[in-house]
Design goal:
Blueprint lengths: L1 H14 L1 H17 L3 H11 L11 H7 L22 E4 L5 E3 L3 H10 L2 E3 L15 E10 L7 H5 L3 H8 L4 H23 L3 H20 L5 E2 L10 E7 L6 E8 H8 L4 E2 L12 H25 L2 H20 L2 H10 L6 E10 L2 H11 L44 H17 L9 H6 L11 H18 L17
Parallel strand pairs: 3-9, 4-7
Antiparallel strand pairs: 1-2, 1-6, 4-9, 5-8, 6-7
Helix pairs in contact: 1-2, 2-11, 2-12, 3-13, 5-13, 8-9, 8-12, 9-11, 9-12, 11-12, 14-17, 15-17
Keywords: Membrane, Transmembrane, Transmembrane helix
Amino acid sequence: MFEQATQLLKDIVGKYPWVSEVAAILPLSALIDFIDVPQKLHIHQLMSAVPLWSWPVTPSGSQLLLLEEAPKQRECVLDRFGRSISLHGLDGRYGDDYLVANPETVRLVLDSLPVTDIPNNHDNMKESNLRLQNLEVNSKERGVPAQDGPSRSRSWTLSSWLSRTSSASISYQVTSFLGWIAFLGCLIAAIFFRLHIATAFFALMPTTGLAVTLMYPGSPRRLLNSHKPSEYNRMVVVAEHMNATDWVVFYGESTLVNSLLNTPLEPAGRQGASTKNKKLPLLRTILRVFVLGQWGLAIAAAATKDWNAFFISFWIIFCNVTHAYVIPPRHQAGAWASAKRGADLLLKRYAMTVSSRRALLSTLLALNPDSFGETAAQTEVTVKKGAENTSTQSPFPDGTTKFLDPILKPGRARSAWEQATLEALREITPQLFQSPHEEWNVRYREQYEGQFYWKRFIAEGISLAASIREQGGLDKSGRKVGFGPRAEP
């Protein structure tokens, strides 16, 4: 029976010449064009969530895996400088301008979050020739502590057990299990049909994955110093460059915001330690042999133009489809962000559009918790009446507007704008959606092309910041964590 089945496959290839021609193309095309090794390695380092059966390696991917310095670096591969587009972070408290330490991880986590749109219904949006700016606000809180007692024992289901013992998502664990079944099925079928090249290729999959795991020990990364809670909120503004039109705000407990943006992610436990230098040359040699073996077998399958090529191509495509659509990197990063053994964060994402850069800056000033005192009642800043103030010093407390310096340089015009913004904030903060009083309007009489052209953007920014606080449940006008009402989770 085995001989008959094997002969039937050979007859199909011989009967239809196009089948053999396709077999000559598929393995090399699939191996070279469709595998994203860098993102796969990044997720492996972030949370150890790449199955051993899913390690076909491209020529370009092998260059990354076999770099001598790569296993010695503690950052995830795409978070290293130059591996992905850098992000600038502007600290709302001290004004520091720094490169975000984990740019690709931050992007993946944000992509995994559902977006709540906040409409901007201000009259400024009805005008033409606007320099629109896209603003995202991401609030961070610590994850909800696990419950103890009888209620916890009643909830001990398979899903809850998996979530407590791994940082990976349930979908990943199910996919990994089903993938092993598919892998064993393909391996048995290849042996059954005496497809020796395909059998050898399947044997190389888990061994290559094991070699990668030994060179790059995978364990869930954690936020450095996140175990030290802070009583203060912090806002950090993130963008690719200072002339960008897409801006992202991170708002939440100071320790959490700084740990995600300003410090590298720390490998958890002893498994996070780098492989000993004495073992690296041997592991690199073994991995190189396995990768060369994959390429050699793929070339051999293409040359023979038989069913070996189809089996190998099927498995490469299966791995690609699985990682692109079933367990994509963004979903895995999102699972890491919320997992108890990962970042353990509760994240919410809001998106809006503002009419101009000055409206954007007004929104940031009104949203920044360091623009105020620890509570609204403690915010006492002397307002210099009149627009005739010519000082270049910021009227806000402790120079908390320094984070705007890379975007808008200090000067008399900026000081006047900050003065007007502060007066408007003090006036309308109790009723966040009303317009400033008549005296304010007269003092900063609107002149679109004149000195106070920015007046019309101040109210827009303040009202939009109020909408963000209302819908996002952010602490209202206070630096302390927990000050002001929060939205129900």
